[in-house]
Amino acid sequence: VTVENLKTKKKQKFEIGTVIVATGFIPFRPYGYYAYGESPDIVTLAELQELPPNDQLLKPSDGKPVKTIAFIGCVGSREPGVKGHEHCSRYCCTATSKAAADLRVRTEEVLILYQDIRTYGKGHEEFYRLARRQHVVFSKFPREEKPAITVKNGKIHMKWRDELADQELIFQPDLLVLASAMIPPEDIAETAKMFGLTRSGDGFFNPEHIKLAPLTTHTAGVMIAGASQAAKNASESVIDASGAAAKAVGLMAKGEVEIESTVSHVIPELCSSCHTCVTVCPYGAINMDETVDPSVAFVTEAKCHGCGTCAAACPSSAIIMYHSTDNQIMTMVEAYLCSPAQLEGGEPQ
């Protein structure tokens, strides 16, 4: 593999036997949500953390101290039917509660609008309790009736219905913070293609098995860790990274590993260069050899799982399965259906 240093532009080649994919996430930029982008005083939770440190929290628009602040949770998360945004980002409730509790001592009023509060994880509930003790106001809004945010003359106006009080409420914060979703990096499709990885509906990488093999993938020697597999907090990501590293060390300690014997094989003379096998392979194990004309398909055996999808789909019968050819399968079928006398060429009994 060739690795390029993005700063020095120097390239260096390495021989590798295992890969740990830890591509992380990027915070969702919620344009189209809650007037984001219409005022510099409407920011995401990630952008709040990037504001210049100061004894007082200052408004990005005019530098004046922030007296009132509002948070809105689940921005771009838990949206049924919206591709890539149906998942819970998991960290938002805890991070919002902690940020609200920290800022409460520097402001006059802090409000959190939420659909549900999910401060899961060891010790995370304490952040919610701390915010309550600091007199942070929590208000639950209906899932089907989002808060209405407008910006008039540089001021932010909020209107929503409190589901528990069943009342229409209004608020005018100096700063509005949106707890936006964790989403995969923009180039994750390229990474998936490179390593033959599959992706879930939320766009992150699929593990080999969510319970039994959460760190390995369907591509032998490739592990995933942290937020490359799903939206996770820092402590979960560290645990994943330790487990993936242990898996990688275990493979490297062996020196060599055995792969499945039943893998696909392309007969070049029969290949019609139709690309059907490349399209249907669920593991990205088949590519086209462009060094010959016309190009022919070839199988990367380390990626192949011997599922036979390509062999079944090939219109030219140019793909066979090692140790599972048509003749071998028919022989097994005959052995199962025919009597011993028939197998020896005799008449059926």
Folded structure, characterized:
The chain is an alpha/beta fold and 349 residues long. The strands form seven sheets. It has a five-stranded parallel β-sheet. It has a three-stranded antiparallel β-sheet with strand order 9-10-11, with no helix packed on it. Strands 1-2 form a two-stranded antiparallel ribbon. Helix 3 links the parallel strand 7 and strand 8. It has nine helices and 18 strands. It has three domains: 94 residues, no CATH class; 155 residues, FAD/NAD(P)-binding domain, CATH 3.50.50.60; 80 residues, Alpha-Beta Plaits (2-Layer Sandwich). The model has no long low-confidence stretch (mean pLDDT 90). GO terms for molecular function: iron-sulfur cluster binding; metal ion binding; oxidoreductase activity.
* CATH structural fold name of the largest domain: FAD/NAD(P)-binding domain
**Total domain modules:** 3
Overall CATH architecture of the largest domain: 3-Layer(bba) Sandwich
Report the CATH C-level class of the largest domain: Alpha Beta
What is the CATH superfamily label of the largest domain?
FAD/NAD(P)-binding domain
Organism: candidate division TA06 bacterium
GO molecular function: iron-sulfur cluster binding; metal ion binding; oxidoreductase activity
Protein name: CoB--CoM heterodisulfide reductase iron-sulfur subunit A family protein
Pfam family, one: Fer4_7
Brief sketch in words of this structure:
Pfam families: Fer4_7 (PF12838). The protein contains nine helices and 18 strands. With 349 residues, the protein is of the alpha/beta class.
